[in-house]
Amino acid sequence: MNKLILTLGLILCFLKIKSQSFLTWKLNDRYFSVVLGSGQTKYIGELNAEGKRQTDFSHGSLAIEARLWSHISTRISAGFYQLRGDDDNAAEGSYEKERNLSFTSNNWEFNLQGIYFIRSYAGNYDQRWKFDPYISFGFGVTTLDPFTYLQIQENGEEINAKFSLRDYQTENVAYDPFAFIIPASMGIKMKITPFINFNFELAYRYTFTDYLDDVSGIFPSITDDSSIRAKLSNRRREQYLENEDAWKSLDVGFDRGNSNNNDQYLFFSFQIEAFLTGGKGKMFKKF
């Protein structure tokens, strides 16, 4: 009997400890979260005459966020995104249609941002606002390696070959494969469960380069007109002539792009955010 009483006592103590541990795990505040996002991209540059966004899911990101003070968080994130532009989408007979340039670029992005919440922290994470709007600002870096396709002859056959535009210096400019960016965004977090948010974010990226699309300056002089480099630099002869004035302006020394405006891009992002355990400490105070 004594053994049975002792065993039952140990079991009850164990269950009590587990219950307290679960309660602590559930109710203790959580200052860290992981955010997984994806959505559509819009490229802003010389080869987007229509000004439309890409309708496919063309970017993805992973971020860690920490709530520092009542209105402020910080976020570090990494992501992959694709940009595309094609003069073939421009209006018939336009300068862009005659220019006939195109590109695709698969890029990586890394950034650090500060986040300002419009509403003050509501309490422990499970008591947070159901709708929590915010704005953010920061700095980061992006890769850039635009490529395109060109019909060439290989082993007696015509193939549509892929070429890295940066490697061929189509404007006689050796630009870097990395560029600094300034990220800014606005969004809203929506509480789904005590542990999960669903977020929507509109994010803007200003870049310190005009070569995300390989188009910026003027048409260079290239000695060998039959070289791959010359064909990638000036593709006007591939198009059926519709605007003779525009066609004549697509020559050595004339504008190939607009070097006064750096390239930019936008993200239309949907995100799932999950709160992580831990994060208690002096740094993570609510004022």
Low-confidence stretches: 4-8, 10-27, 281-287
Write down the overall geometry: elongated
> Which structural class is indicated by helix and strand composition?
alpha+beta
Helix and strand sequence: HEEEHEEEEHEEHHE
Radius of gyration, Cα only, in angstroms? Answer: 27 Å
Order of strands across the widest beta sheet?
1-2-3-4-5-8-9-10
Question: What is the count of DSSP helices, taking H or I runs of 4+ residues?
Answer: 5
Specify the CATH class: Mainly Beta
What does this structure look like?
With 287 residues, this protein is an alpha+beta fold. It has one domain (31-276): Porin, CATH 2.40.160. Helices cover 16% and strands 42% of the residues. The chain is built from five helices and ten strands, in the order H-E-E-E-H-E-E-E-E-H-E-E-H-H-E. The chain has helices at 2-27, 95-99, 165-168, 228-233, 244-248; strands at 32-44, 59-67, 72-86, 102-117, 131-143, 147-154, 157-164, 178-191, 196-207, 264-276. The strands form two sheets. The protein has an eight-stranded antiparallel barrel with strand order 1-2-3-4-5-8-9-10. A two-stranded antiparallel ribbon has the order 6-7. Mean pLDDT is 86; it is low at 4-8, 10-27 and 281-287.
